[in-house]
Specification:
The chain has 560 residues and is of the alpha+beta class. Helix content is 44%, strand content 11%. A hairpin with a 3-residue loop joins strand 5 and strand 6. The N and C termini lie far apart (56 Å). GO terms for molecular function: protein-lysine N-methyltransferase activity.
Length: 560
């Protein structure tokens, strides 16, 4: 998105007293066609010019409402796009907390980058627009705030030493470190921070990347092996560097736990709890992959070069520890040379993940300052935990690679559905494979539970309608269409009845005295049950709704 400045052409007095904002869906967007289709359903094009003629707050809010509808669609991620309501008559004011904050900030950046070089009237408009956006961000923040409980008497000496080390080496931080109940270490705002403030700024020299490993004694061995990715090289380096008393990053490695407690370390009992769930499959596949990778790469290294790769430092247990370190703490960072590298960023790893993060945009080293900045997308009050977004991940992914379930309803907690079929896609007539993957999530996220919607994803319902009767004109209050609706709702009900049976009964054991991994496994199954239960409720409610309409339809036919 960019700002379109008024052109000083003849007769442009009115333009000189107004301001226009140009919003564009870039053609490079991975989901350009789908977003274009959604924009058009809402009455917009992929390029829209929004004109602001007055600084009056009511007019500014009206214009912002239009801009925000466009920005929300432009900033949809894959899951949000799949579950977007396709009813053009339904005014969608919200997709997700993430989408709302990102969309508001995208417009705010346009405004703040355009405050210079305009007439006073235009500046007044921009200032008022900025104020209205800031108020909306604050309101959204208040509605979706996560309250953290700080454990006051917990010792964080090692973490404080790391922060002091960072500041002595050029780090600028407006965050402190504390122990957070249920989450471990967390970053706490030392002062009130507003949107756009830099909460943390870390010099590139303190970022652990492949460039650092190139200076080590093992790089000349590893670079000759074609099967070695840069991430694997970093992982192997960290296994040894952790025990290097002369390491520049010793104070960082000293703060790392001996056990990360991610899904990769789940024991037998926890895995049995998860049997026949998507999380079980995810953990088992990941562990099998890592075990095979270890057997292929590591023993040959310590057998051929025991002086560089001491066997006692390269056991399977230590390899798994390093994998968990990089999975749970690494970040993708874009450097000024244009290279995107997987890195460890000391101090930044204290920022915990949230569905309602304060920092949503990061990961690029500033070429002017040669620092990595973490700027706020929503306000953070003094004493409040400052959250980061690790990405739009499901709870199964977060458990497997990070070892936690986020607080709140996660819009990315989806259940994939593999449905048999062989049909042309209604949008582009391309052939779909015989197995088509769709997904569902908790129907409480949907705003439309009316007939033909039921709180279920429109993409899935339309697919099933075409699969049942490709020639039928669907979504009409006619007998054949309504009977088709009953068939697809009954099909979904049977699928999710079976899924609920496989999830089993609610685990009622004493969770407080249960192992951490079993506790997480039970929590995940609770989430799955809640999602499946909501879908079954929607199916039953939908069947009742369709039956009522079918009865009315048949009664009218009888009278007719």
């Amino acid at each position: 998105m960019e700002v379109d400045k008024p052109l000083p052409t003849y007769g442009a007095l009115e333009l000189e007293q107004s301001f226009s904002v140009f919003l564009e869906l870039p053609e490079s967007d991975s989901f350009f066609d789908k977003k274009k289709n959604l924009l058009q359903k809402k009455g917009f094009n992929t390029k829209e010019l929004c004109l602001l003629r007055s600084s009056h707050p009511d007019l500014i809010r009206t214009s912002l409402k239009i801009m925000l509808q466009i920005a929300r669609i432009i900033n949809l991620d894959e899951v949000e796009l799949y579950f977007s309501e396709d009813d053009a008559s339904l005014t969608v004011d919200f997709y997700s907390p993430r989408n709302e904050i990102v969309s508001l900030n995208s417009i705010l950046r346009l405004v703040e980058n355009s405050l210079d070089g305009h007439t006073q009237m235009q500046k007044n408009i921009l200032e008022e627009l900025r104020n209205v956006i800031s108020d909306m961000i604050a309101n959204c923040s208040d509605k979706n705030n996560v309250k953290s409980v700080i454990v006051e008497d917990h010792c964080c000496d090692k973490e404080s030493c790391l922060l002091q080390w960072g500041e002595a080496n050029g780090t600028r931080s407006r965050l402190g470190i504390a122990y957070v109940e249920g989450a471990g270490r967390g970053a706490i705002a030392r002062e009130d921070l507003k949107v756009g403030d830099t909460a943390l700024e870390i010099p590139a020299s303190l970022i652990i990347s492949e460039e650092l490993v190139k200076k080590s004694d093992m790089f000349h061995i590893l670079e000759k092996r074609s099967e070695m990715s840069s991430e694997t090289i970093l992982l192997l380096w960290s296994m040894k560097e952790k025990h290097n008393n002369n390491s520049k990053f010793k104070v960082y490695f000293d703060t790392l736990p001996e056990e990360f407690n991610t899904g990769l370390s789940f024991g037998f009992e926890a895995l049995m709890v998860l049997d026949e769930t998507v999380l079980f499959e995810e953990i088992m596949q990941a562990k099998e992959h890592l075990q095979a990778q270890y057997e292929q790469l590591v023993p040959p290294l310590f057998n051929e070069h025991p002086d560089i790769f001491p066997p006692e430092l390269y056991t399977w247990e230590k390899f798994l520890w390093a994998c968990e370190l990089w999975y749970s703490n690494s970040m993708k960072i874009m450097f000024p040379d244009g290279e995107l590298r997987t890195c460890l960023v000391p101090i930044a790893s204290f920022l915990n993940h949230s569905l309602y993060p304060h920092v949503t945009s990061y990961g690029k080293v500033d070429s002017t300052t040669n620092t990595l900045k973490f700027c706020l997308s929503r306000p953070c009050s003094s004493g409040e935990e400052c959250f980061l977004s690790y990405g739009n991940f499901s709870s199964s992914h977060l458990i497997t690679f990070y070892g936690f379930v986020p607080k709140g309803d996660n819009p990315d907690d989806v259940i994939p559905l593999e449905l048999e079929g062989d049909e042309g896609d209604s949008e582009d007539d391309s052939c779909i494979s015989s197995i088509t993957t769709h997904m569902v999530r908790g129907t409480w996220f949907s705003k439309n539970h009316n007939i033909f919607h039921y709180g279920l994803p429109s993409t899935l319902l339309d697919y099933l309608r075409r699969a049942h009767n490709p020639m039928l004109q669907t979504k009409t209050l006619l007998q054949e269409s309504l009977e088709n609706e009953m068939e697809i709702l009954e099909q979904l009900r049977l699928i999710f009845d079976d899924m609920m049976d496989k999830l089993g009964d609610v685990d009622l054991e004493d969770r407080e005295n249960t192992r951490w991994d079993v506790k997480l496994a039970i929590e995940f199954k609770d989430i799955q049950r809640r999602i499946v239960s909501s879908i079954l409720t929607s199916c039953h409610s939908g069947l009742d709704l369709v039956k009522d309409n079918l009865c009315m339809c048949m009664a009218e036919d009888t009278r007719g």
